From TrEMBL:
GO cellular component: membrane
GO molecular function: hydrolase activity; porin activity
InterPro entries listed in its UniProt record: OM_porin_bac (IPR005318), Porin_dom_sf (IPR023614)
Lineage: unclassified sequences, metagenomes, ecological metagenomes
Gene for this chain: oprD
Protein name: Porin D
Keyword Repressor in annotation: no
Species the sequence originates in: bioreactor metagenome
Pfam family membership, one: OprD
EC number, as in UniProt: 3.4.21.-
Length: 146
């Protein structure tokens, strides 16, 4: 998968934060959202992603996804709103292994192991999360209500 996103305006993406503005936090569902959501002021971002389904190797339910996202042309400001850079950058390398149970009492339950490696240019470090290496484990258990 290839994806591209571009923000514009005088601030990064405005989530609204309860002020009745923004789109109800929908941007975080863009294809290039893993650890970072790449929403800096005037930021452009591009992603390349590959997913492999191990069903072809007789391991149904097992998938591996890897992605690289790069953001550039970010207008970074200090905590007083003074612009310190108009070309800040960020990047993330993402890997995830997921297994989904195929049958039995746990059918459709899944376990995901995710790793993200995030780096930002020095002029963007204080604006966001800073350089980060992160591991996450997800256990998804579907529940039928009706």
């Amino acid at each position: 998968m290839l994806a591209y996103q571009q923000n514009s305006g005088n601030t990064g993406y405005d989530y609204g934060l309860g002020r009745g503005v923004g789109d109800g936090h929908q941007t975080i569902y863009m294809p290039n959202s893993y650890l970072s959501d790449f929403i800096g002021n005037d930021e452009k971002s591009a992603q390349i992603q590959y997913t492999y389904d191990f069903g072809a190797m007789n391991v149904p339910g097992l998938t591996w996804t890897s992605a690289f996202v790069y953001g550039w042309d970010i207008k970074a400001t200090d905590n007083k709103g003074t612009m310190i850079s108009d070309n800040a950058q960020e990047r993330e390398f993402f890997n995830q292994v997921k297994y989904t149970v195929q049958s039995g009492f746990a059918k459709d339950a899944s376990l995901r192991l995710r790793n993200s490696y995030y780096r930002a240019s020095n002029d963007y470090q204080s604006n966001y999360i800073g350089d980060t290496n992160e591991w996450r484990i997800f256990l998804d258990i579907p529940v039928k209500l009706f």
